[in-house]
Specification:
Two copies of one chain form a homodimer. Chain A is globular, with a radius of gyration of 23 Å. By secondary structure, chain A is α/β, with parallel strands linked by helices. The mean pLDDT of chain A is 90. Chain A contains eight helices and six strands, in the order ααααβββαβαβαβα. Chain A is 37% helix and 10% strand. At the A-B interface, α1, α2, α3, α4 and β2 of A face α1, α2, α3, α4 and β2 of B.
Chain lengths: 212, 212
């Protein structure tokens, strides 16, 4: 006979179990901790969840997450100090965060909303490609970086986009591939080694990453 | 420059970071997952948090977690098949769950609400001892099991209670101590080994756990 939690606490555990990486035990531990919170803290979180979709939306230009309070643009599209003539195309909005953390990219983004994956029923027409073409038509863009995942579907999508965007006469690039920074060569996989050896860079010249 | 999440998403991450075992990265991952949930699921969780303290309270008899919808008793105190003449005293309500999972105890519980810890400002008068004495006066109880943690403060509290409850002429016991079931003797700590060797049980007699 298992211990029965009160119904509302049981329901709270079910919600928590829906979160990524949270199992039965963690959900129980969290629910008991939440039950100890004071009324104000519970009310604040409750209100936050209730109004989440009202307050947070997607940027009308690039598809990044954006406050609904502003002019519809995310803080990156809205920034005057960013280079509006370089677009970095990513699959999903959370990937923008990863690229921003490098501090290396100063342009704008465009969120595709996935990649071409016929087995999952995702085709080119399900991606935000028309809106990307519209941006190319409306504003002067000199480079598009296709920052898609270096796997089969990501690369197929990159090749498709690269062909489709040809008419716009814009420079199309992709991030370099090779050994990850700070990694141990001992544990590198064969495919990565092959790419890294092939695209090797001379050490007594200025290394340029446009080698393919 | 770090990536800026929209304000409401940032707030959601702060709430999640307040949960036990959740750091910055997990909170971000969870918040992005929650953002993908549909309106109905967010509304249900919001309502659940808002009404949690209304719907869940503590049992008026033993202090266990209880639905506020019933007669004020938890499902254990309310059960006619449990043995109402044995009380198991625990420090906190979640410990009831652990004892119930063994399936070995069929009596009722009493939640102390902590243990005597003068350094933390917890004294006997801060614990639910008066309500325990009231139960002893009002209903026939034949045994009290002091299931307190086997550490210094838990045992000090057990000794205090054992003395204080002497006038009630009730059998007072505590769970046996020794090697945990399924454990490897190699990794047992010295204190546990000492207790286990001292309280050793003959294998050719019927082992009785009342050995001290």
């Amino acid at each position: 006979m298992d211990f029965q939690f009160p119904a509302a606490l049981q329901e709270l555990m079910e919600h928590l179990k829906g979160l990524p990486g949270i199992g039965k035990r963690s959900a129980e531990r969290m629910a008991l901790a939440i039950f100890q919170w004071d009324e104000a803290r519970l009310a604040a979180w409750s209100e936050n969840l209730r109004t989440l979709h009202e307050k947070v939306g997607v940027c009308t230009q690039c598809g990044n997450l954006a406050d609904h309070t502003g002019n519809g643009l995310c803080y990156i599209c809205d920034s005057p100090v960013r280079d509006h003539s370089i677009l970095c195309v990513v699959e999903e909005a959370p990937q923008i965060r990863v690229i921003e953390s490098s501090g290396e990219f100063k342009g704008l983004y465009h969120v595709l909303g996935g990649r071409i994956a016929p087995l999952e029923g995702k085709f080119a027409e399900n991606l935000n490609i028309l809106s990307l073409e519209k941006r190319l038509q409306e504003t002067p863009v000199r480079e598009i970086i296709l920052a898609l995942s270096p796997d089969v579907e990501g690369q197929a999508t990159a090749v498709y986009l690269s062909n489709r965007l040809q008419p716009y006469q814009v420079r199309i690039t992709r991030p370099a591939r090779g050994l990850p920074a700070g990694s141990d060569l001992t544990y590198a996989d064969a495919a990565t080694i092959a790419i890294a050896m092939n695209a090797r860079v001379a050490m007594n010249e200025t290394g340029d990453s446009t080698n393919e």
